[in-house]
Model the fold of this input.
Amino acid sequence: MSGRAIRWLLSLAHRAAVQEPGGARGRLTIIRHHRVYAPGAWPLYRLGVSQPVLAAQLELLRELGLAPVTVAEGWRRLREGEPGSWVALTFDDGYGDNVERALPLLEATGAKATFYLTAGLIERRRAPWWDSLAHALEHTRRDLLEWTVGERHLTLPLRTRPERASALLRLVPELRVHPVERDRRLAEIGGRLEVGEAPCELAPWESAADLVRAGMEVGAHTLDHPFLSLLPPAEQRREVAGSVELIERRLGVRPTGLAYPGGDHDARTLEIVAASGLDYAVTTRPGVNRRGDRPFELRRRGLSEGACLGPSGRFSRRLAIAELDGAFDRMRGVEVGT
Done:
């Protein structure tokens, strides 16, 4: 039996908690998204949901009386002791499809969201590292990649699309290194695959300005999307402060929140963010947020397309609610945050 079928069966017995009164400490569930794809689009590396699935999620939240707010607004309500349960919606990286496909849905349903922008990549019109890797694997005419990294020699077949998808999953961990070394490795891979530079699909500043005009929150997501724990304090500080300043300079609003790239951070990161003047930061650790929680370690829950589709492949209201409540966290071996 597939994991989807097992989750579907378990959801039949799940009692929804996301709607329950938050109690004296309130309850804030933050949803994490990235890209929003056109119907039928299936790139090699799919980092997001389709526009119809996002529309179904927004309609479900509206029916539950949980129209999404920004993270800043939800955190303010918790901090000030307002009773209630809220959902905040977030989009990481700053892709153009957020403006093209997510924003119209948000405006049509009266929802708000927070968009965390990778400011340095937007400024330089440079593709994120995972897009560069996917572009090389998707467009190469080579049917084999042989690459030595450290003491490991990799031989990855690329004849079929499933083989290319498998190669991508194998290569991603090899790029979890300092940005200088990561870029060197990417250049090596691109050279061996004989593929040029990937296009930048992040929204240009003039498009990102539409988010501000629509009343959405714009947050920081560093300059270049590094794994912050791999950087010395001075570089971490530059990534955090530089992204805040660049967004303010280009969009005229100063971010009050940060999303850690990949959720990665360490004790030094927390000190730097706390000293930066930001009000909060979000992680990728699942769970709900309550009054008194650490402001720079707020939890976020992914709500991927696969998490919302039942065995028939259609959007499942029951399954989506169970996912929002974290009903399957223990099954997946996820540390549960309450």
